[in-house]
Amino acid sequence: MTAAPGIWQPHDRAFEQPEEVRFEAAGVEFECSAAAVLTWTAAEPSPGVLELRVVPDRTADVRVAWRVPCVDATAFWAADGGEHRGLPPFWRRPRTAALEKNAPVGCLVGAGDVALCTYAAGEVVRPVRTRTGVVEETGEFGFWVEHEAEPDAGLVLRLDLTRRHFATTLAEVAGWWRALHGPAADVPRVARMPAYSTWYAMQQHVSAGSVERQAGPAAELGCEAIIVDDGWHSDDRGRGYGYVGEWEPSPTTFPDISGHVAKVRGAGLAYLLWYALPFVGRHTALWERVRGYTLAYKEHMNAAIVDPRYPHVRDLIAGHLTRAVTEWGMDGLKIDFIDQFAVEDPPEPGPEADCRTVNEGVRRLLAQLPRDCLVELRQPYVSPGLWPYATMVRASDCPLSPAHNRQRTVDLRLIAGPLAVHADMLMWHPDERPEHVATQLLNVLFAVPQISVDLTAQTPEQSEVLRFWLGFFREHAEVLQRGSFEPARPDLVYPQVTARSGDTVITARYAPMPVAVPAAGTLWLANGDASTDVLLRVPDSGTAHATILDCRGRTVTEGNLPLRPGIAQLDVPEGGLLRLTR
């Protein structure tokens, strides 16, 4: 492993009078640069895991670079990778992670789903810039990480070169972040139970009556929370945010917000309310009051992004959200658009500001929000610096796209640490087959489903699917969400995912790949693929009891099944479930 010349690209920002340090640790050569005198330490807390600290003698941007041979590499995993899992070229522009957006972590994945090199930075609030990719001249994979570092802390970096399963190395990164930065918020049980969301079902045409009509059916089917999205605060039904910021319930559609919340809670559901945190709309009475304290104006949104570096701005926003919990009886808040605070080249703060950076302003704002309530965040604001202020994090919007929902929830599970991971809301056409309703649910089996259809208009078959699979989510939540997590083949968008705890193994199959049968215990195999010829990879001889259910939970077949080493084949319906007990 070398740090060959040429790690900088022509459009990279150059340091003035840079100091450079080269050193080797655990067989890796590192090259560090800064406009300061640098010292470094390296520790190997376990074989193949390296922790570096590079310290400048004064506050300065510090960059650390290294390379590994690009041998047997199949994918590059990044927290903001979206749908792209190929190997990027090293010359592409750097990524930035900060409190408001992304997370400073990545993994070069090799054949067999092993981590060839997993890296993470310890800084989780201020911007961390990273460049990763294939170095064309040498066939290596290059990395550099850079951020402003203080002489009392430095740049802290963790590398995992153990060639273990990539999910294991990322889970350990999450544990490392938690050890560095202290405790997170408590995540109550309800955050891990199925929820109902109004967004795709109602869009902005939401009202107290429409919400209350869904509450009873949602609770009966197994949901434990309802999330009321955009539209509650205004009678405007146009897309955009020109009327957000004052956060008063619409007197037309929510004339008695406290009474309404009490009714929904009486049906057995926790209530979360949506807020677009950074926006104040052009058509609000607040506009003139805040326009001098903004970071940017978004023409297409018809709203400004307020500047959280000013205490009175933070007080204004926090006061609105606190009122929802303390006066209206809300159980939680859906906080949207934190990533919009990450504007390029923000204006210099004025004399009334009490912090220099927007990152710190956002952190102080979040610290002022109500505690001891449910708080939902969303991709791409996935920094571990947000863990103290949230209980759940949701996949970014992907309506009617099961594969994207699967990839995004799996990506979140890998680095979400203590937070409950929620799927993007599930919707389907009224004429959708029950098998396809089931596969939507199965694609997010290892997360918390949010249902967003009119539950009063579902066919009996669609309702049966919901009742059966939401019951499975609830019954097996501990294994599905908190068990050992093993997604396969990130380069193929996770065609198979497994969770295990004790003697229970749950595998979801999204492509015709063989599924390993454990030597003992119970295997639950959910078939999320259209093919029904399910192949089982059997390690040894024996007898198992097999039960096959269809997508509605009805028994198709049941009985003892002789097993021999090798491949066995069973017919499991699309959207159906196999229980195999040895």
From TrEMBL:
Q: Which domain of life is it from?
A: Bacteria
Q: Which UniProt keywords apply?
A: Glycosidase, Hydrolase
Q: InterPro entries, alphabetically?
A: Aldolase_TIM, Alpha-glycosidase_related, GH, Glyco_hydro_36
Keyword check for Magnesium, yes or no. no
Q: What is its EC number?
A: 3.2.1.22
**If you read the UniProt record, what top EC class would you report for this enzyme, in one word?**
hydrolase
- Which one GO biological process term can you cite for this protein? carbohydrate catabolic process
| A molecular-function term among this protein's GO annotations | alpha-galactosidase activity
Classification via SUPFAM superfamilies: (Trans)glycosidases
The name on file for this protein is: Alpha-galactosidase
